[in-house]
Amino acid sequence: MTVIREEDFVQSIADALQFISYYHPVDFIKAVHEAYEKEQSQAAKDAMAQILINSRMCATGRRPICQDTGIVTVFLKIGMDVRFDTKLGVEDLVNEGVRRAYTHPDNVLRASILADPAGKRQNTKDNTPAVIHTSLVPGNTVDVQVAAKGGGSENKSKLAMLNPSDDIVEWVVKTVPTMGAGWCPPGMLGIGIGGTAEKAAVLAKQSLMDPIDIHELRERGPQSKTEELRLEIFEAVNNLGIGAQGLGGLTTVLDIKILDYPTHAASKPVAMIPNCAATRHAHFTLDGSGPAVLTPPSMEDYPDITWEVGDSVRRVNLDTITTEDIREWQPGETVLLSGKMLTGRDAAHKRIVDMLAKGEQLPVDLKNRFIYYVGPVDPVRDEVVGPAGPTTSTRMDKFTRTMLEQTGLIGMIGKAERGPAAIEAIKDNQAVYLMAVGGAAYLVAQAVKKAEVVAFDDLGMEAIYEFDIADMPVTVAVDSKGTSVHQTGPEEWRAKIAEFEPVKIR
């Protein structure tokens, strides 16, 4: 009988979570690089360049790929000939590993988990508890799959109870555009088919633990209906022209993963869960000989890529910006921001709007200011701020009109598209929305030269900071006239793909 020591198990979970916070899987790095090499959309190519540069920086600096260090999901297959040398339950052991990983002093990870989700929504401070799936299987080892899933991609998950005669590809092609770009493509789509509603969702999540292998599948050809479906969905989704970060281009997905399960004769449950540009997962086996040993990627696995902004870039001083200045900015234009800007996301926006409704004075003056939708990781060592990439902007859409019309705010920075209501408010107020690349958090943080909390410090990572920045790269995503590149870009590339045979993504 195999004996798994408590410390070996806990430390293995902790080590795996630290490992995946700063190391992309090698298959992901190679897949993004191949897509980068073949991409013909300059905006999408630039976004992928930032993702790859950020990945290498995180590997060398051992800091998080994304500021959203995720909700932890663990799949355990415990051999029935295994005994645990501990008085704790298996879930308690996993959560102790999570706690240890997320509070590691050399690489503090952002605590994003809130207890009482329908009530007070209080942060648990250590990112526990994890979501754990356990099965007992024959054998004398413990098979562990660990993932950290960001909220931006998790929020785009879809579930449908299709009729048995409904076409799955048709549903996927119809559904993916409704997900927007908040899941930070390029990434993978995990699809679970069959079972019951909850089984389909678990299958979709579990499928994302497998490595990217669509290239090999295309070369050898499909050998089952599931493999045919993978290839068909892969081509169909990429033909939508959504592209990296939703800016339009050839590559939206790097792979399609599918797991299925027998289902009721009257049912066809289908769940679809995306993995973002911060794909993070690890797989190890414990056999009683000690903690898991995880092998880092070689620096040779990372492509040698540089990103140049070019001569046409617009340099902007946020300390002197005026509403007249931003009316000159064009959709899709690259802008380098310097000066002081504020931060704020869901909780801060809600509090501001509530204070305005009550006639209370705000703790910060937002007139002619820009606000960045970010919840940064705590800094370590000599850092000014930890990784500080953008969060999904559509969550702030319901606050946008009030913020623009009652505070004097003129600009917003986040990731992905804005919805119709926000775009209309931006147009009416001749404001602007800028997009930073999701999945490039450590790279973005290098632009921050000073950071201090200026309001709502009780909100933790959702407090309002003032960042002093230098040359932070962003794209004009919605201009003062209400033109959105997340609408024009995919439309343009969908038409181009339909007209010519694009470079094959293999």
List its traits.
4-stranded mixed beta sheet; fumarase; single chain; 506 residues; 5-stranded mixed barrel; alpha/beta; 19 strands
Structural features, described:
This protein is α/β, with parallel strands linked by helices and 506 residues long. Among the domains are: 151-277, no CATH class; 314-490, fumarase (Alpha-Beta Barrel), CATH 3.20.130. 32% of the residues lie in helices and 24% in strands. The chain contains 15 helices and 19 strands. It has helices spanning 6-22, 26-38, 42-61, 90-102, 151-154, 168-175, 197-207, 214-220, 225-238, 323-326, 346-357, 397-407, 420-428, 441-445, 485-499; strands spanning 2-5, 71-79, 82-85, 114-115, 122-123, 131-137, 142-149, 158-162, 187-194, 253-261, 268-275, 281-286, 314-317, 334-343, 370-372, 411-414, 432-435, 448-455, 464-478. The strands form five sheets. A five-stranded mixed barrel has the order 14-15-16-17-19. A four-stranded mixed sheet has the order 6-2-7-12. β13, α10 (323-326) and β14 (334-343) form a beta-alpha-beta unit. The protein is globular. The two termini are 45 Å apart. The relative contact order is 0.16.
